[in-house]
Design brief:
The chain is mostly helical. The protein is built from two helices and no strands. Helix 1 (about 10-25) runs antiparallel to helix 2 (about 30-80). The protein is rod-shaped. The model has no long low-confidence stretch (mean pLDDT about 75).
């Protein structure tokens, strides 16, 4: 699964960390609220990356199972036709 550069885990974390560092210079109340917001966004981004990784792994497993099923079916068809059984 190809992930656009701007959605890679390291890029998202780096951007969030950069935003956190740049914006943390405001007064303390605003800084605290901003930090909590950025930490929440970072957590959401990490969850999305984990979900994407899991989805990619699940898709790979599905494709492998489908390929194995295809091989088994081809072998079964070959065996049946070799025994003179015609499939319609």
């Amino acid at each position: 699964m190809v992930v656009p550069n701007h959605l890679t885990k390291n890029n998202i974390i780096s951007q969030s960390n950069s935003l956190m560092n740049n914006r943390f210079c405001r007064n303390s109340a605003d800084s605290l609220m901003e930090r909590e917001n950025l930490e929440r966004n970072l957590s959401d981004a990490q969850k999305k990356c984990h979900t994407m990784d899991t989805s990619e792994r699940d898709m790979r497993n599905l494709i492998l199972r489908a390929e194995e099923d295809k091989k088994r079916l081809a072998q079964r068809i070959e065996k049946l036709t070799a025994n003179g059984i015609v499939l319609l």
